[in-house]
Design brief:
Blueprint (H helix, E strand, L loop, with lengths): L1 H14 L2 H18 L10 H13 L12 H19 L12 H13 L5 H10 L6 H7 L22 E10 L5 E9 L5 E7 L4 H11 L8 E4 L7 H9 L3 E4 L9 H13 L9 H17 L24 E6 L4 E6 L2
Parallel strand pairs: 1-4, 4-5
Antiparallel strand pairs: 1-2, 2-3, 6-7
Helix pairs in contact: 3-4, 6-7, 8-9
């Protein structure tokens, strides 16, 4: 019986199409190459899958020569390729947000390099004043990433603050000769303006009371004054404030968040100016503070002031000219405007 079967097979091979024999030989050779792999279990590569999917479309009797995998597996490969092909073909072209102009991206990088302490809100405020319509999210995407953690935000306990409310506070600054200078700051809450400051090496209650008179020489005294429980605000200071018709509001112990605006202004002065210089003496500190407060009032943007300065800046129309940088505070910060 076996001899008869072999004879029949030989007769069948004689009359078969030469093209079909070539395809069968190709299929058997490909599987032989898989079996000759060094690994114990033959591994089907991506090219092997593509070969069998291609062969199944050319040769109708392809499954007769298949030994490594099941025919259903090849059919599954073909269906997966069909899905991938149409997924690629039906993919939407030009999907997503429009690209940001290279000019704006370069300007954002420039502001990051020239002002390392600025975050996305500050840079976005400058761009708004230059008539750029990019969102704050876009600004944050194209900023130069640094290693510093994001700046902290300050929460206020006042839900409604009145224009005639001020906050006062002291901060210290060491000099090059290791002396300690005390700086007194008076801040109006309505426009975040520092209406008065002064520097001394020996603060007293009488000296602090005199500063209140110099800050409000006429009938400009506020209705409320927020301060901490420092011993500098002694009896003479309290008497002078009461005689000026000011309500003295004292914060709780160890609660600087109850005087947030003054604390925030002092934090800005230190972080953006004083930590980058060495103070020589009292006169030098006053000169540095005058320079910074000029920038603080006329150029620095504030989120609480609709991204503008305490002395409002004009929003410049686009197309007026190229953007130029004006150094402020000795080059620590810059103001941007369009050249005429």
């Amino acid at each position: 019986m076996s001899l008869l079967w072999m004879a029949l097979l030989s007769l069948r091979n004689v009359f078969r199409n030469h093209g079909e024999l070539a395809l069968e030989n190709l299929a058997l050779r490909q599987q032989l190459a898989v079996f000759h792999s060094k690994k114990k279990r033959p591994r089907i590569r991506q090219m092997d899958r593509i070969f069998w999917v291609w062969l199944s479309r050319l040769w109708s009797n392809w499954h007769s020569a298949l030994l490594v995998v099941q025919p259903e597996t090849v059919v599954r490969w073909h269906k997966q390729g069909f899905k991938l092909y149409w997924r690629w073909k039906s993919k939407a072209k030009g999907f997503g947000r429009p690209k940001v102009e290279i000019e704006i991206r370069k300007l954002i990088h420039r502001m990051c390099r020239e002002n390392p302490s600025w975050g996305a809100p500050r840079i976005h405020s400058e761009l708004c004043l230059l008539r750029y319509d990019e969102s704050e999210t876009t600004v944050g995407k194209y900023m130069i990433r640094g290693r510093k953690p994001p700046s902290q935000t300050w929460r206020t306990f006042l839900e409604n603050h009145l224009p005639d409310t001020v906050g006062i506070d002291f901060f210290t600054m060491p000099t090059a000769t290791f002396r300690i200078l005390f700086t007194f700051v008076v801040l109006r809450h309505d426009q975040r303006r520092i209406v008065h400051f002064n520097v001394t090496e020996h603060p007293t209650a009488a000296w602090t009371a005199q500063q209140m008179i110099e800050a409000f020489p006429d009938d400009e005294a506020p209705r409320s004054l927020i301060r901490d429980r420092d011993g500098i605000y002694g009896h003479e200071f309290q008497t002078r404030v009461t005689n000026m018709g000011i309500e003295d509001v004292v914060c709780s112990r160890r609660s600087p968040w109850q005087n947030p605006y003054a604390e925030r202004a002092i934090g800005s002065i230190k972080c953006e100016c004083l930590r980058h210089v060495i103070i020589l003496n009292e006169r030098h500190l006053k000169r540095i503070l005058h320079s910074y407060l000029e920038y603080y009032h006329h150029s620095r943007t504030h989120l609480s002031l609709d991204r503008n300065a305490p002395v409002p800046r004009e929003v410049e129309p686009g197309g007026r000219g190229m953007v130029v940088a004006i150094p402020m505070v000795g080059g620590l910060h810059h103001r941007y405007r369009r050249a005429a």
